[in-house]
Amino acid sequence: MNRIAQGLVLVLLGAAALGTTLASDLYLNYVQGYFRPFLIAAGAVLVALGAVVIAADLRSAARGSDRQDAASCGHGAEGGPRVAWLLLLPVVSVFVVAPPALGAYTATAQGPSSAPDRVDLSEYRDDPFAEAGDGPVELEMREFVSRAWTDEERTMSGKTIELTGFTVPNPEGEGWYLARLEMACCAADAVVNRVLITDEPAPEADSWWRVRGTWDEPEGDLQEVRDHRFTVEEMDEVADPPDPYE
């Protein structure tokens, strides 16, 4: 029975990996999208290994080997199977209560960001504001923050910008944050990018919003800015939030 419990753990873990990648996009709450084929392969291997373990133990039981082991071990062997089945509880819980994506609590716990030593804008468009003309420019939160920390010429000033993110209460009481988490590999290395909004009432924490407005051009050295401010002209709640990470 110990080996059957172990085999079931492998099968359930593999099924969880396959379910979050093949049947849904839940895996995006924890890792980047390029991990999908590796998760599918790992899930398939776990299911196969678990099935082999269970089948081998059932064949062994049919030959009567379990009776011989029980006779040699006495009453002490009876406690093992009961304890082994407890291994299934945390695995089954994955199917019942899937951990959500990181959100407002993580963004608050990380505190204010500081300007990075080096900002690489090569992955972004050269001049998105020229391309958009007089219309709003949709930017990822990380792109907006990167440009805000390097825009020494203040070229973003007065431009209508559209950002999408989730709401984070400000523990210091002034306004609230619109935030997005940037993930390099997995949720464990996620960092927060956020803007401070003070001209609109704070929505419910972790609710998603699309806001249009302008960057509040800071005074002094951009490298000293900890929270870039954003003046909202229009905001709409996002009913179907995108991938929680950028």
Structure notes:
- By secondary structure, the protein is an alpha/beta fold.
- It folds into 2 domains: 95 residues, no CATH class; 134 residues, OB fold (Dihydrolipoamide Acetyltransferase, E2P) (Beta Barrel).
- Helices cover 39% and strands 17% of the residues.
- It has 8 helices and 6 strands.
- It has a 5-stranded mixed β-barrel.
- A hairpin with an 8-residue loop joins strand 3 and strand 4.
- Helix 1 runs antiparallel to helix 2 and helix 1 runs parallel beside helix 5.
- The protein is elongated, with a radius of gyration of 26 Å.
- About 3% of the residues have low confidence.
Biggest beta sheet attributes: 5 strands, mixed, barrel
Number of strands: 6
Helix/strand-derived category reads alpha/beta
Average pLDDT number: 78
The count of helical stretches stands at 8
Strand content range: 15-25%
Helix content: 25-40%
Looking at the overall shape, the CATH architecture of the largest domain is Beta Barrel
Radius of gyration: 26 Å
Q: In order across it, which strands form the biggest sheet? A: 2-3-4-6-5
How far do the termini sit from each other?
A: 45 Å
* CATH secondary-structure class of the largest domain: Mainly Beta
Overall spatial form: elongated
Q: Give me the strand/helix succession.
A: HHHHHHHEHEEEEE
Q: Which segments are poorly predicted (pLDDT under 50) over 5 or more consecutive residues?
A: 73-80
Number of domains: 2
The CATH topology of the largest domain is given as OB fold (Dihydrolipoamide Acetyltransferase, E2P)
